[in-house]
Structure formats: structure tokens, C-alpha cells
## 1
Amino acid sequence: MKKVLVATEKPFSQIAIDEIKIVLDSAGFQLELLEKYTDKSQLLSAVADVDAMIVRSDKVTSEVLDAAKNLKIVVRAGAGYDNLDLDACTQREVVAMNTPGQNSNAVAELVFGMMIYGMRKQFSGGVGSELRGKSIGIHAYGNVGYYVGKIAHGFDMKVYGYDPYVSADRMQAHGVEPLASVEELYRTCEFISLHIPANDFTKNSINKALLSMMPQGAVLVNTARKEVIDEDGMIELMDERPDFMYLSDISPDKAEEFKKRFPGRYFFTPKKMGAQTEEANVNAGVAAARQIVSYLTSGDETFRVNR
Ligand code: 3PG
């Protein structure tokens, strides 16, 4: 019987686990669970005899892959797969996949939750401001960006987008005005919502020069990855620009410095929670389980991210 391990340091909701089990049961596969593990050694022993693995932001390194001698496929139940060592997977002939789109709406809703929280003085009772009529720039127009645009229209915001991999026609069809350069996006928009992946090209790319182009009252919303931010540059900018606010679903490495120096102008969730809804857990978890069944029974490689 094939064994599928769900290894999540940040667990899925119970209903998602129940639904993953139904998918695996009906294929005759066995579910194994490792949740809330605190030490890498627990992961290393849990992977020892499994055929497949579902993870979230859990790091799948060459060490983990070496310990997983039977592993044929690992699925990141989510969008960003910067936690998977793709080269190491390829070298060991392990297929790596993600589940694009499955948790996107959850992340997009959190963008607006954080924006309202920030604009309403963190619910302190002070006089804040509204989103209506303001400009929002969607930096990377993938699945999350699409939902951010849809919701922004509901708030009557002016919606702009920049994504070199997405056609202007697609954005226009959704009522999003495409801008030709990243600089133009930052120059135009009071709010920027980041949806770029963390990779060698994007790490530290959101830097002081770019951020300083944003108009007065600028707000950067980060539900992507902390690695894309040049934190030193951002701190310098926030020192110079008392109008600038940073809202992030991922606590920065220099969180303490932000807290000390910029009270009222930052907000960080205690743990990355963009995808923490029952719906997103079910969608991403079940999609991952189905992809595993499909690959192991018929070789279907849709959503493979390593070659
Ligand atoms: C993603 O890339 O899908 C999101 O960042 C969610 O990550 P999580 O599953 O670790 O919450």
C-alpha cells in the first residue's frame, strides 16, 4: 500500500485532513500525519518509508530527500515553492508540484484585512482614512493578484498592475490597468500589494530606490515573502518618510527594529496566515492529494515545477 505523508509544521484544519484522507482512501493509499513538529529529526524519521509527501512551507532539503528513500513525489499544498530544493528533487528523480490558485482568495482577502486595519489606525479609535478612490498596484498578476484586483474594484479603488509575464489584454479584461514598468507602478500607486515569488531574481528587489517612488501616504502590503524586501533599505526609507506604512503577513528579520522605530506604521501577523482558512486548507490539501493519486496511478505531471 502506498504511503502519503502530510508533514506540516503549521497544520491544516481537521476538515482538510478528513477530506485528504477520503481522497487517499479511495485510491487505496495510506495517510500518515506529522503535524506541529518542532525538530527536523522528526521530519527525517517520518519520511523514511513514504512514497509521497504533502507539505506547506516546510523545507524539503537534500537532507530530507536523502532520508526519504521511497519518495516519488512531493507536493507543496500552496503557491510558492521556494521551500522545495528543486535541483535536489530532480537529481533524485522526485517529482515536485505545487497547487496554484487553491489558496489565492484567502491570501487576497487578508490583503484587504491588513489594509483596513492599517488605514483605521490599527483599530485604536483614531481618525483613519478610506480605501475608496485610492490607487492600488498589483505587483505580479497571478492568481492572488487577480483576486486582489476583483476585491479592490468592490472598494472602488483605481486598480493597476505590473507583470512582465501576463498580457496587457488579460489585465484589461479584468478592469486592471497594466503599467509598462515596475517603476511606473510604484510611482502611480498609494498602495502596492506584492505577489512576486522569492527567487534569485526577486530577492531584495523591493528596495529603497523603488519604494521611494511611491506617492505620499504610501502603504506596502506584503503577503508574498520576506526575502523579496531589502529590509535595510526599507528601514532607511521609513526613517526619511514618516508617511510610509509597511503591512506584512511575514514578520521581517528585523521586526524588532521596525517595532522600536516605527510605531503605528507597521503591522506583522504573528505567523504567516494568508492561507489559513478552512476553505484554503481544504482546496490546497485536497488538490495536493488528488495530484499525488493522479501521478502515482497514471503518471499525470500537471503542475510539476521541476524538470
Ligand atoms: C503559499 O505560497 O501558498 C502561501 O504563502 C501559503 O503558505 P502556507 O501554506 O505555508 O501558509
## 2
Amino acid sequence: MKIAAIEAIPYSIPYRHPLHFASGSVHDADHVLVRLRTDDGVVGIADTPPRPYTYGETQKSIVAVVQDVFAPQLVGVDIFDREKIQEILYRTIHNQTAKGAVDIAVWDVIGKTLGQPVTKLLGGYTDSLRVSHMLGFKPAPELLALALEFRETYGINTFKLKTGRRPLHLDIEAARVLREGLGEDAELYMDANRGWSANEAAEVLRRTADLGLQFLEEPDDAREILGRRRLVASSPIPIAADESAPNLGEAAKEILNGGANLLAVKTARSGFTEAAKIVGMAEGLGIDVYIGNQIDTQVGTVASVVFGAAFAHTARRAAELSNYLDMTDDLLAEPLQIIDGRIRVPEGPGAGTGVNAEKLERYRTDR
Ligand code: MUC
Ligand code: MG
């Protein structure tokens, strides 16, 4: 069972509603589909979202690194030699989502070969995850209307509010309007995508102290180490690392430096293999984790579900799984459904990431 070929196929699907946040915005899903074939004809799939403002990758850089750097080194390697594959991928620094996609495609093939769902191979903890929806920048009344619509339509009652704007009262007001409109039972948290300074974040925390927010993600630039450490030490709620903890080493560093006391885990940037190492590290240190969103398509989201449902530590909190709803279409062969605020793990062998061939032909941009 050796890797015979790895393709990286760029495609583009427009968004119905663009998403705006402190570090950038998304109007089209200009992603890359990674397709890995073995010498006996098994095909593994994974989605790769270019996020230049987070990891420095672009659609072209992902295609190039997968086809020109990873594929030549990986062809001929046995599909079950996962540590060997990791070693080869990590000879190249950065390129987080490109590595993540190759790893997920490898797991997809392993599951299909063994005739087992990958979620069971990883841990098999549960069969569904509670969904958290991410709300981009909008005027406060529109945010509330959208959140109420999501609660009504999908049963979602956990919301991540994108923040990091100036003046600070824009986000403080948005959080207040959401809390008042959604009531006490809704779970609310904020993600500033490094938009504030540590002192501004501390001020936001003071002015929202009565809103029962769960945590604040990536408030400021974590490289400003003393400011971040001071914020974590003084904050009444956890401070989560997202883009400051894109891999195992950085996640460990952020926790040990006092730069965060909660971790976002994203399969799009860590694959399943490195994400599992991050989860194990966090569990051992008594650090909570949650499954984050890389503004994923359904193909990407299904990978998050498969992984998040595999471990007790990742299944505890609501997972960010619903932003594919902002897209006009998707490649996933069996569309996801959100019922009573939950997404079920797909049944059947592999990682559930099969694509609709006709749609791939329609949306691919390399022909
Ligand atoms: C998030 O949680 O930050 C926005 C940028 C990115 O890399 O991911 C998204 C969501
Ligand atoms: Mg984030």
C-alpha cells in the first residue's frame, strides 16, 4: 500500500455572505482539494483553505508545495508509515494547511483500506458534536437577527463573535446586544484575531465582565509576550490561542509562556496526526481545547467532525462547524446536516470526505 500520486486541485466557490474579521475577509472559497492515490487505487481526499493573513499560504503556494515538494518525497512511502510521512512533511517548515491536508488524505486512505471510519481509528469517543457558529463583523442588530435565525433553523445556541475592531465600543455593544437578545443560556465568546493591544483587550474584558462570556480568543499579537502574559494572568475568563498555536511546538510554547490557557485545535492546519498530539499535550497539562474553524468548506468541516468526535477532550465543548453555510455550494458528496444544534459523524470507511465529481469539474480552476 504505497502512495502513488498526490494531486493538488485549485477550485473556487463564491460565498453567499462574505465573512469579515480583524485579520482579513473571505469572499470566495478559493481552496485546494488534495487527492492522494495509492498503488492499489484507493483515493484519499482533504480540503486546504489558503489563509495568507494567518499562515502565509496562498492557493498557488499550496498547489506548488504539495505537487513540487511533498509529492516527490512521499511517492513510494507506505500509507501506514504515518510517522515517516510526518517526518517528510516536517522537513519543510510552515505550509501548515498543505501539511494538514496531506495528513488527512493519508488517514482517509487508511480508513478506506481497513474498512473503518477514521473517527473510530482515532478514538471513537462519540457520534456527534455540538455546533458553534462564527459571526463576522456586522452591525449589532444584524448580528442578533442572524444568531436568532441560526438558533431557529439549526438549533445552534453557541456563537463566536468576531471582534478586534476600533473603537472598542463597536464590539462591546455587539456582545451586549447578542447577550440581551439571546438570553442567558446562549454560549458566547469572542475572537479578536490580534486586532487589539493587550491593554485594549483588558479594557474590553472589564467592560464586558457582566455578559458571561466564555473566553476570548487571540486578543492581541502573542509575540508581544509580556503584554499577553499580563492579560492571561489578570483575565477573569480563559484566553485562547488560535493562530499563535498553529502546531505542537507553538502550542506548547504559548501554554508554558503563559500566553494562553485554552487552545483552538484546527484539523485544517494540523491534520489529524499533529492535532492528536496537541490534544494529548493539552489534556496532560489540564488545558481545555475546542475544535476551531478555518472558514472550512463541508469537506473541511467533515474532517473537523471526524476528529473532534474521536476524543473526550475535544468533544466536550461546542465545535466551530457551520460556516460552510455562508457558501453558495460545496464539493462534499453527502451534504452535512445540522439538526438540534449538532452534526453527526459520517458513517462508513474513511474520513467522510468524498467529493461530488461533477461539482469538482464545475468549480476547479486549473482547466
Ligand atoms: C478564526 O478562528 O480565526 C479567521 C482567520 C483564520 O485563519 O481562521 C478564521 C477563524
Ligand atoms: Mg481565531
